[in-house]
Design brief:
Rossmann fold, Arc Repressor Mutant, subunit A
């Protein structure tokens, strides 16, 4: 399918934001709602987007997006989520940050914290936190994943088993409507399961787009998480489940 200029712009917006809204697009391009709906239908028919009520999202599947694309997606939301999460982390504590662009955003929000110890298998997190003189940084061993600076594997798992920290902050590739936290890489999942076990308090950070994504490997359930930091209210059924589990849900502005 040969895309029009407008359709190419719509697809780029979807890649950047994760979701596009019919009314917003009509206003942006100064065209009718019907024109935008037709564009979205054609993009969906071509395999680029999935139609949802009121708009469209990037086509879901079992292949993860590239690191740079994930880093740019919903950047403003990730900053707000990270700020809320960092506000819940006090000075004078220990914590683990795992892989993910949202956990990297949390690291940036921790630059003003003092007397903290951060243990991570994320080279990007370690590099960010070098700017904080009040942060002791410990980096896990393991096999380096060049695509995103992550360290994974049995050595990484064994490394984290040596610690018991106050907080763990983890990200995810997808969040299922039944509360399952999902990822693509089984080696990364094994590491994250260990991180959850070795923390007294566990935080999940993820933006709303993760509810429209799918991934094949189950990491944990929200019932195992103390607090979820996100940027939009959860579906009602999942909100009720979190209340039953005692999982706090904080929606960042």
């Amino acid at each position: 399918m040969a895309l029009s200029f407008r359709q190419s712009e719509i697809l780029e917006l979807a890649r950047s934001e994760g979701r596009v809204i019919v009314e917003d697009l009509a206003q942006r391009f100064d065209v009718t709602l019907q024109t935008i709906r037709r564009d979205l239908t054609e993009l969906a028919d071509a395999g680029h987007l999935d139609r949802v009520h009121g708009g469209a999202t990037l086509r879901t599947g079992v292949t993860n997006l590239g690191y740079e694309q994930r880093r740019r997606m919903n950047a403003g939301a990730k900053t707000a989520i990270a700020r809320a999460c960092a506000a819940a982390i006090p000075n004078n504590c220990s914590l683990i940050l795992n892989l993910g662009t949202t956990t990297e955003a949390v690291a940036r929000e921790l630059l003003g914290h003092s007397n903290i110890t951060v243990i991570t298998n994320n080279m990007n997190v370690a590099n960010i936190l070098t700017a904080n003189p009040g942060c002791e940084i410990m980096v896990a061993g393991g096999a380096l994943r060049r695509s995103d600076g992550g360290l994974v594997g049995e050595l990484t798992t064994q490394f984290f088993e040596q610690f018991k920290v106050d907080y763990a902050v983890i990200g995810t590739s997808a969040l299922d409507r039944d509360g399952d936290i999902l990822d693509f890489d089984l080696a990364e999942v094994r590491v994250s399961k260990t991180i959850i076990r070795q923390a007294r308090c566990r935080f999940l950070v993820c933006d709303h787009s993760k509810l429209t994504q799918s991934a094949p490997a189950r990491l944990a359930s929200l019932s195992e998480i103390d607090a979820l930091f996100t940027d939009a209210p959860l579906p009602d059924d999942l909100t009720r489940k979190c209340a039953e589990w005692g999982t706090k849900v904080e929606v960042a502005e």
